[in-house]
Specification:
The complex is a heterodimer of chains A (359) and B (163).
Chain A (H helix, E strand, L loop, with lengths): L1 E4 H5 L12 E8 L8 H11 L8 E4 L4 E4 L3 E10 L9 E7 L4 E7 L1 H11 L5 H14 L2 H9 L20 H17 L9 H10 L7 H22 L6 E2 L2 E5 L8 H22 L3 H12 L1 H14 L7 E4 L3 E2 L8 H5 L3 E3 L7 E2 L4
Parallel strand pairs in A: 2-5
Antiparallel strand pairs in A: 1-2, 3-4, 4-5, 5-6, 6-7, 8-9, 10-11, 10-12
Chain B lengths: L8 H11 L4 E6 L2 E9 L4 E8 L8 E6 L16 E3 L8 E2 L19 H18 L13 H4 L14
Antiparallel strand pairs in B: 1-2, 2-3, 3-4, 5-6
Classes of the chains: A alpha+beta (359), B alpha+beta (163).
Amino acid sequence: LIHPQGSWSIGATIIHGADDDRFDLDGVVEFPVPSSWRPSTALDTLEEALQGFPDVQKIVRCTRCVQLQFAFMHLDVTPIDPAHEPRVERVGEIFHHSRERREERRHPANPYGFAQWFRASLPMPIKAFQDAVMRARGIAQRSDLISKGMTVFADAAIEDLPDPIDRLRDAPQVIALKLMKRYLNLRYASRDLKRPPSVYLSKMAALEPTNVFGLCAQLEQFAGTFIRQMEVANSSNRWPDERNPRLEAESFNDRWPKDTTAMTVFLGDLRHLVSQLALARRSEFSETQRIFSGLFGERVSAASAKAYLEGVSPEPGKTQFERGRGYVAGGAVGATSAVARSTSLAPAHDFHPGILGRK
Amino acid sequence: MKRAKPRTPNTQLNRMAHRWPAFERRFLGSSLEAWIGPLRGFQQDYQVAVIWNYGEGLPPLVHILEPKLKPRGGGSFTDIPHLIFNPTSPEDSALCLFDPELRQWTPAMLIADTTLPWASEWLHHYELWHYDGVWRGPSAPGPRSIGEGLGQDKILPDAAVRP
């Protein structure tokens, strides 16, 4: 049985960021493993079984999974040994094997339960926000690449794939999570350091309330949560220890942070992110694009700009505005709060050039 | 049916105070009112001045105070779309917000409900124009800027500024 886990199962899949056009997906392969097998044997067996997988360019053995590298994506396949019956659905143990550190052990895990918890924890985004994201996504044309990635699995025995147009993927918490992951991918691309694990980021994202001031504010709030957690960890030695809400024995921080340096580096990245977002708020569009390119990559930044610009209608019509503040554009993803508030309409008009004082 | 009777200064003042409370009224003289305050563009707010010389029957003019009006890199002020261009001090040019030939603004209209929203919309498109040089706002037929219209006889009719 193969089922999705990680970002795939919660609708938070991203293009890698530091490596264009590449999606990172996670899947779980569930099979009973004899108790006499060492973790390395289970991983070796899976690696062997995956040889010859259609369209795979390269297979890489990792500490807890086997990575299949395709043209447009990487798929991390993690073997899980199902727990004895009676069993909570899909609970089991995953395998950890590090040749360098000579470590071999098993870990209790319930990725399926976590995905269910994640999806149940998030409120559905309001319709105006969903519509704006859908419009931007349509213009940026990312869905075609996701489809290419998914066709790879057409012949595999796969169950319970999440709906690829799941509305939950447009929740502000999920988009903030994707942006955070992209940002960290770029920050850690040239570092020989382990980054905070996605599952830890995901749990924290699901715990964030929806920020009514839009996407940028949602991301700032998300970063602020981690800043406080890192500051507490550094000052009081209470390190993050997030657990799987559906399996208390599963720690999401068992491999990160390894030391205080890991947290200090993460804290520095978060402060940089927040300060750059604050700068972007005060800057004009051209400068904002430069800042966003630095934070999330030129491709995402340019795609967002293109999506926004193509959504701006040149057709004359009534001007929608928020009293005391100003114009409300129709295509803005970040305009949730403005859309939610009451707006007024000014009469239709056309801009027109002239010369001052000419009679 | 559209209202024809001009709004009184008091009506305009009250509506401005009610709809745009952050705008400060400045009394500039007899039959001359001004308001100064913040107005949203796209990514940033601008400090603008709205000057209304109702004594001469002119429409209100909107000037950008901060950050200053500026051309795109390598361009000139005459390339900025939809300005009421001030040849002696281009930075102080006003925004051209409506087509006077079509009488899209008349003294029967409320400044708070027309001029201010249109100016904010202008600022939004101005910021996007700075990004890629494309003006996406609604435009009257003909050239969009003084620079674009240079050499074309038909631009800038007398009514361009004074409806």
